Structures are given as structure tokens and as C-alpha cells.
Amino acid sequence: MATAQVRGSLPGGQQPEAPRELPLEQGHGFRRLSARLCALRPDDSSSGRTEIHLLFDQLISENYSEGSGVAPEDVSSLLVQACRLVPLNQNHLVSKLSQLIHHLLNTLQVIVDEQNLDFLLAYTISAIQQCSSWTHMQILQALAALYLPDLLGKSGLLMKLSDLAQSDPEVRRAAVHCMANLCLSVPGQPYLEEPYQNICFQAFLTILQSPKAPDMDDITFCMLLQNALKGIQSLLNGGKMKLTQTDELGALLAVLKKSMFHGLPGLNIEMPTVLYPTPLPQYDGRPPIKPQQPEASASQPPVSKKKKSKVKPKKLQQGEEEEEESSGEREVAPAPGSGRVNLPGGDTRCSPSLDAQTLPVAGSGAAGKDRVSSPFSSASWKRVSSSESDYSDAEGGMQSKVRSYQAKVRQGALACFLSTIKSIEKKVLYGYWSAFVPDTPELGTPQSVSLMTLTLKDPSPKCLANLVSNSPYNRLKLSLLTKVWNQIKPYIRHKDVNVRVSSLTLLGAIVSTHAPLPEVQLLLQQPCSSGLSNSNSATPRLSPPDWWKKAPSGPFLEEASVSSPKTSSEPCWLIRLCISIVVLPKEDSCSGSDAGSAGGSTYEPFPMRLEALQVLAHLARGYFSMTQVYLMELGEVICKCMGEADPSVQLHGAKLLEELGTGLIQQYKPDSTKAPDQRVPVSLVVMFWTMMLNGPLPRALQNSEHPTLQASACDALSSILPEAFSSLPPQDLSCIQLLNVDSETDVSRSLVEGIGSVISFALFPGHPFPLQGDRQILCITMLLGLNDSANRLVKAATSRALGVYVLFPCLRQDVIFVADTANAILMSLQDKSLNVRAKAAWSLGNLTDTLIVNMETPDPSFQDEFSGLLLLKMLRSAIEASKDKDKVKSNAVRALGNLLHFLQPSHIEKPRFAEIIEEAIQALISTVLIEAAMKVRWNACYAMGNVFKNPALPLGLAPWTSQAYSALTSVVTSCKNFKVRIRSAAALSIPSERERYGSTDQYAHIWNALVTALQKSEDTTDFLEFKYCASLRTQICQALIHLLSLASASDLSCIKETLELNGDMVQSYILQFLKSGTERDDSGAPHSQQERDQTVRTALDHISSVQAPAGDTAKRAVVDFLEDILTIYFDSSG
Fold first, then answer.
1. Helix (H, G, I), strand (E, B) or coil at 448
2. Which of 142, 394, 699, 808 is deepest in the core (most CB within 10 A)?
3. CA–CA distance from 353 to each of 301, 345, 407 (Å)?
4. Distance CA 885, CA 933 (A)
């Protein structure tokens, strides 16, 4: 590759060869444009640059059909000439040239010759070094187009090195690893082109289908399979690759099923090359095996639980393990779509040792240790010393390492299988499903290997953790989780750190699945010594509850901790165990498998500590009533973790803080079922957060070297209880001292700049809600300062945190704080990152909610003081955001509705607001009608209802009135999503005066649309929508009755005509509405029967009072209709 400075000629001074003449019937456009380009000479004038721009655009837009006759050498020469014409100081031209290189090479599938390739590579590399950063994406695309054919082409370098004929196994593995990395997706960058995706997929598939070469060791083979599986998963996830061919999908599913069982002890399966779909589950046609006669089974006495329990446990376990190792099973020829397996003993039935009912449940204490016979007891997890095993320590270590790599292959196959399932339609997947789930439930019939076999036989609890996480234990019978729990509990104290980490992973999955489960609550309250005693323990002993307040002078004795009266009444033994793992020194030397612990570290290995912190976070999320007892202890654990040097430990500490803060907030929500005397007192919450703010949390917020930690610290800071925030005590230190300012960092400078403004509005004389002290100022200052961060993770987290703080009662009426927050959010709403914009839009919605809350307070000072110019900025930004992606749009329309509701008459009467109001309402109308996500349209309908609540807006008179009502009536009659229909019906029932519904024709249109919507309230092809039918009818009936209560004399004729056609239908649904008495929903419908019949009475009284012209029968018809409804209703209710 050429690395010299790029000049206007090829290496060696050779001028580029002009493109040869092409046949007139082929490549005419390319030939003509090439000739024009080659005729140009380097020219830095404006006209010269414009001409080059136009030529590049024409070359890119040219239609290069298949067989266009364009020769590769002509393309290469043209690109070299283009590079000669474009100096590197012209960023726009360089960007356009990069697009041209990428387009021509990929469209025409051209491989550039070596001499021209060197020149083009040198040019693009120099462009990366010299051009502006905004051009880099296009330049990288060009660079990829230049080198990918040489790497991934049909005769590319990586294809040759990864071929089966490659003699060096390490070279082959490294080549496949490179291919897998090329298939990774990078956010914001284009993915690998489709032809290369297909080439890589076929290469990975061939590797997975091929057997292990004789000269390849087991670990290298496992790594080869892992890389191939990772590559396919990346293609499915990042490249959104679609498997449309039956043979292609069937071949992939076959190798995935085979890989799921790779290296599994006791199984050796063979699979067909391709799995084919079947319309029905593939039932085995062979008759069930008849039970053996008693005389034939004399040599094999039946399994008896009593007899089994009398056998010495250690011999039984060792014998089972030896049987697994010594049996040399082979798979019988499988039928297509199934992978049948011979299990130990030569029988095709499942081994009795795999039956869950025959697995003894671990007891408590030492007895429990001896009685354990677990499905996880493979040779890699043997609890025997090296002197009892059949191989030396070195051999045992290598065997354990091989099985660890084999487990990674199985896990990679499962992950790839999950990606495959997500990438294909359910109706296509159904034909293959019988190959992965048990298809012979009858007892005594041959069993095919399936996902259930894997669950029972795989010795890795991570496999079980995935099963637990996806099992509906809240719908299944009790004791299933207890069996899993008791089987895995002894392994928490295993000498191998990998086993201990996996066991904690499984326990974490249990406590996070459908939490809280009563069965898990009982398991958490077990005595902490139950099932944990183990002679091979390497974890810290459980310590007394107040250990953290004392400096331990030596190791705790297990006997002392077990017999401690405090420990015996421990609310949750798992929390105590995890705290001990995180902060207590380890008491004995870890085994050789304790990789991951720092050299000379006195604590548990990092994987163990991080997993323990994750389990604590799961418990805080799902079982907070138990976790709250340890609140202050966990606070000190968090401070210790966030004060450590390792960023991963700090990060997990911040995550735990966020979960604890969220749990405290949930307790104090208005709809919380927690009794006040069972909540954590606010005073204790204040102490907890004071500890956090005095600890390392502020330093983590300033740690710009680790933006992920900064973002997590922002999330944690946003989880403070509002009641606690307003009660934070003052302290003597100033904000600058708390911030630990480093003048060299941009973040610290931003924080310092924000201190003055924060103090000025917080401590200004006469300020309505002055902050009590430096800690509150500290929180606000850091968030406002971090909003200027260049890192998008930090900026997104900060935007969200500001959206939380603006809802705090002690801050939301502070005009200056709300204005500062609004400006910060509007700035983030312009960010290039979609995630930042989405968070900023959510916060803008929250801020506008605050405006509405303040508007409803008796004191009008907030509305008077809030800047009209800022309102205009917010409206403009929200309108622009409503045109963004759905993640941004859903909250942008929410903000628009609130802002239009908040506008005061003093704003509306100003000319500069007239145009922006019209534009905002049009944005809402278009969002109501577009085919967007349900949440977007629901929020748009909700926002439209908020607009209708503002009496100062000219609803009913303005030209946009009919458009708004037409949009809502279209949705209420035809939207596929019933929740959106409900919200549109609710919006139609909001105007409180007849004039706001517009003309008689407009009123009639709304009335008829609602009647039609009532008729179609069960018309849906989506079964999931049926559960909303009753709520939809309730809301429509509410809207119809509301319209009747406002009807004028001119409206009655339309109502009469509708009732003559559909009166019986409308009457039946209104009677259901009166009798239902469901709970009040967010639409505001009355929830009691008395309230509902009162609405009908009100409508009847209003119609009766309408002055109708003489001889008009419409009024009488409507009155009779309502009276009949009330008569039938009261007669039926007694």
C-alpha cells in the first residue's frame, strides 16, 4: 500500500490512462461523463469546483444496469483522475468524491488493480488525516469499498485464509475472527453491503457445518465456532439480514441446534445438514416402548427413593459422574428435523438422573451438603480434590478450560438462535419449532434432544438463568423455583470463582423474574446458613448485620456468624451475603481459577463483586420491602464502591444507588399501596442522600474520563425523592469546594459558570422558594453544567434528570429555574444524537406539564413572569421536533398540547403568536392522521384535547376548527388501535360550550362519526384490541351524552335522523354504560353509577329546555329517547 504524500500523478510520475472507448450501445452515459472529467485540469476557481460537483452528481445518478459494459480499468482510471482534480482542502468535494468511489465500486462490483489501488488508498488515508471530521463517514465508506473486495471478495484474502484447506489452524481462526469483526455494526455508520453479507454468511455456515480437523486442538476449534456464531449473530442483528430461502434457514437452524449441545457431557448428537419445515409438529410414529416384564427386570431393580437415599451419597455422586465420562454413546441416524440421542445405558429414554422428580432437594446445613445431587454436577464442577480425581492438576485444569470454552460455544449458539427467531416471521418459525421443543410427551416413548434437554443437562447456570428469566413462574405451580434455588445454593460457596459467579447470576435471574413472587420472598427469608456450608468455600463468611460499622481486626468465624442471634433473624440472607462479597476481604487464598482478581487484591475477584452488586440492584428493584431494612448499610457500600479506582465497580455502585432511589420514590407515589408506617421515613431518606452527596457522587459526576459513569451518576442523582430534596440540610462548605474544580476540564468550567446564576436565583431576596443550602445548589449546578457535555451519553442523562427536577414541588414554581431548564432542554433538542433528542423531548413534555400545574394554582404570578419570548422558542422547537423520529415526536406533540393550553389571552392577541399557533395546531393535526406508532398518535389526540381546554383559543371560529375535528373523527372511526380511538373520543368530549363545536354541519359530522364508531367498536382483526372494546364504548357513550347536553335547536333534526336509524343500538350501549360502573380512567369518564345516570339526566334537562320551533318533532323524539333509557335503567336496577 502506498503511504507517500498524494500528488497529482500515479506513483512513479506515470499519468493516469484515459478511459478507453466503450461500445456506443453500452455505457454511453459513463463514457460521455468520463471524457468530460478527463478533459478537466486542476482548477481552484469557483466555476471549476462547481463543474466538478455537477459531474460527480451525474456520475452518481447514472443508471448502471447489469451488464452495462463498463470495464474495471475504466472505473479505476476515472477515480484516479477525480482524485487529481480534488485537493484535500476542499471538504465538500472530498466528501462527494468519497461518495462516488463508494457508489461506483459497489454498484459495478469493480476490483481496482494494484497500482491504482495504492494511489486511491493513499489519497483516502490522507483525506482522513487532513479533512474535517464531518467528512470522515463518507471517506471511510470509500475506504471500505476499496479494501473489502481484496478481503471479502470471492478470491479475497480472508476467504482464502478461512478456507477448509488452510493448513494452519491458528491462521484460520484469526481470519474468521477478522470476518466476524467486519460484520459488527457501529451506531451511526453504514453496514456491510449485502453481497459481502452473503459471502460472510456462507463462510460462517460452512465453518459450523465442518467437523474438527485432526490437527486442530479443542480450544482452537471452540474459538473458531464462537467467532462464526458471533459473525452470524452480527449479520442478523446489525445487518438485519433476512433468511428467505428455505435451505438457507434450515441449514442455519441445523448447525445452531448441533452447536447448542457442543461438548455437553453425556450427549453426542448428529444432525442432518438441513432442517425442513413441517406444517404440524413432527410426532414420532413409533409405538411407545412397552414396560418390561418383572422377570426381565430382575437384573435391574426399579429405582426406589428409599433405597436411593440409603446409598452413601458420595459414592452415588461419584458413580454417576464416572458413568457419564466412561460411556461412549453414539447417536443413531436421526430423522429429518430431530436430533435423537442415546443416553447412558444404551436406552433411548431419558436417563432417570435427568428427571426433575428424582432429583433430591438440598437440605440445610452439613446434611444438605452431602445430599446434593444436582443436574449441574458435571465433571467440570466436581467437588472432589485433585487426589480423588483420575487426572493430575495440570490435566484437570486443561479439562476445565476446554469445558469452559465448550460452554461458551453453547451460549453463543443460543444467543444466535434467539437472533434468528427474531429475524423470521412467526408463521415461518412454526414449521421448525418441533425440532426445538419436546414432541413426544408420552411416558416411555423415545425422546428427541431439545431445548428442554439442554436445560436439564447443561452444567452452566447461565443457561438456567436464561430459562428462569423467560419462564412465567407467576402462572406455574409453586415449588418449581424452590427446587432450582436449593440446587444452586450450595455452589455459591464453591472454590471455583466461575461457578460462584454463575450461581449468583442464576439467583439474580430468580429475584428479577416477575418480582415480587411470594415463593421467592420465603426463600430470601430462609436462615442464612441453609445450604451454604461447604468445605470448598472461597467466599467471605456471612457477617453480623452491623459489621460495616466496625473495622474488622481479623476474619470472622463461620460458626460465630451462623450462631449469631442477629444473623438468625436476618430479613434477607442474600443481601447480607452480597454485601459481604462486595466489601469484606476474602478469608482464604482463591483457587487458580480465580482469574479476574487483581494481583495482590484482598477482595473477591471483580466478576464476583460485580455480580453481587447486580443481585443487590435486582433485589432493590423487585423486593424493596426487604432491601429498605439495609438502606444505610447499602449507602455505605455504594460510597465505598464509588470511591474505588475501578470504573466498573463505580458504575455498578451508581446503578445500585439509582435502584434504591427509585424504590424510595415508588413508596411515596400517590397510588402507592404501601402503608405510611411501612415506608422509609423522609428523615432517613434525607440522611441517606446527604451521605451520597457528601461522598464520591459529585466526583463521579465530574469524571469526564469515564462518560458512562457520569451518565449513570446523573441517572442516580435524578432518583432522589422530591420530599427529601426539599429537606436536604445546609452545610458550611461552598459549592466550589464541593465541586472539586479542575480548571483544565470543560465540564468543571461549565459548572463554575453555572454557580453564579444558580445562587442568584436560589438566594435572591424575596425569591418564592429559596433553596435551603449548598447541597440543593450543588445538584442543580452540576446538572445544568453537564448539559453542555460533548458526550452524548452524559448529555442524554442530564436532559432526562432536568426533566425530573422540573417536576419537583419545591422547584416547579421557580420561574428562573424553569426558564434555565427550558433553555438547556431546547439546546439538547438540537443535538445530532437521536437519544439525546428523545430524552430532551421527554423533559420538554415534563416541563410543559409543570406549566399546566402552575397555571392551575391560585397565584397567577408564574404565568405573568414567564417569558413570552421563551414560549415562542419552545413552540418553534416543539414544532420542529414533531417532524423528527417517533421517539422524539411522541413527546414533542405532548409538549405542543400543553403549550397551547398554557397560552394566555395576552399571548394570543399578539400578532407574533398568531402564525406560530396556526403552525403548531397544523403539526398536531398532521400527527393525528399519520400512520405512526400508537404512542405518537395517542399523545397527539391527547394534545388536541389539551388545546380544546384553552378558552382563549378561537375554537369553533378559527379555520383550523374543522380540520381538527375531522382528524379526530377519522381516528375514532377507523384507527386500528383502540386506545387511540378512546383518546380521540375523549378529546371530542372536552369542549364545554356549544359554540366551540362550530357550525350545525360540523356538530352533525361529529355526532354521526361517534355513532358510527359505536357501531364499529368490535370491528377489529387484532385479537389484542378486543380487551379495549368496553372502554371504547364507554368513552363514546360519554361523548354522545356530552354532545346531547350542549345541543342547540338546529342540531336536533340530525340527532333524530340518527336515532331513527340506529336508536336501538345506541340505547343498548348507553344502558351498558350506565350499568357498568367501571373504575375512572384517565379520560375523565364518571366511574359510579350515580354519576353516570346524572349525566343522562343533565342531557335530558337540557334538551327539554331547548326552545324548538312550533311543529318540530325532533325535540320530542330526543326527549323520548332519553326518558326511555332512564326508565329502562331504573326498572332493571329495582
1. strand
2. 142
3. 15, 12, 21
4. 10
Tell me if 643 sits within 8 A of 696, measured CB to CB.
yes
Measuring CA to CA, which residue among 797, 916, 812 is closest to residue 854? 812
Domain residue spans of the chain:
28-213+222-235
DSSP assignment of 696-738: THHHHHT-TT-HHHHHHHHHHHTTS-HHHHTTPPP-SS-HHHH
Q: What topology is assigned to 28-213+222-235 in CATH?
A: Leucine-rich Repeat Variant (1.25.10)
Residue among 624, 636, 730 nearest 669 (CA)? 624
- Check: CB of residue 185 under 8 Å from CB of residue 144: no
Selection from 456, 482, 478 nearest residue 467 by Cα = 456
- Residue 396, number of CB atoms within 10 A of its CB: 17
SS3 340: strand
The β-bridge partners of 757 are none
Contacts of 9 by beta carbon, 8 Å cutoff, 6+ apart: 15, 16, 84
Distance CA 124, CA 104 (A): 15
CA distance 1080 to 753: 48
- Using one digit for the tens of pLDDT, what is the confidence trace for 854-904? 998 888 888 888 999 999 999 999 999 999 999 999 999 999 999 999 999
Would you put residue 500 in left (φ > 0), alpha (ψ -120 to 50) or beta? alpha
Q: How many other CB atoms sit within 10 Å of the CB of residue 319?
A: 12
- On the CB side of 989, CA atoms within 13 Å amount to 24
Closest CA to 712 of 783, 626, 651: 651
- Nearest-angstrom CA–CA distance, 780 and 988: 41
pTM of the full predicted structure? 0.64
Cβ distance 973 to 1013 under 8 Å? yes
Sorted by sequence, the CB contacts under 8 Å of residue 963 that are 6+ apart come out as 922, 925
Instruction: Kindly report the backbone phi and psi dihedral angles of residue 569, in degrees, each rounded to the nearest multiple of 5, phi listed first.
Output: -105, 20
Q: What is the pLDDT of residues 529-547, one digit of tens each?
A: 444 444 344 433 444 444 3
From residue 321, give the alpha-carbon distance in Å to each of 140, 380, 514: 55, 10, 35
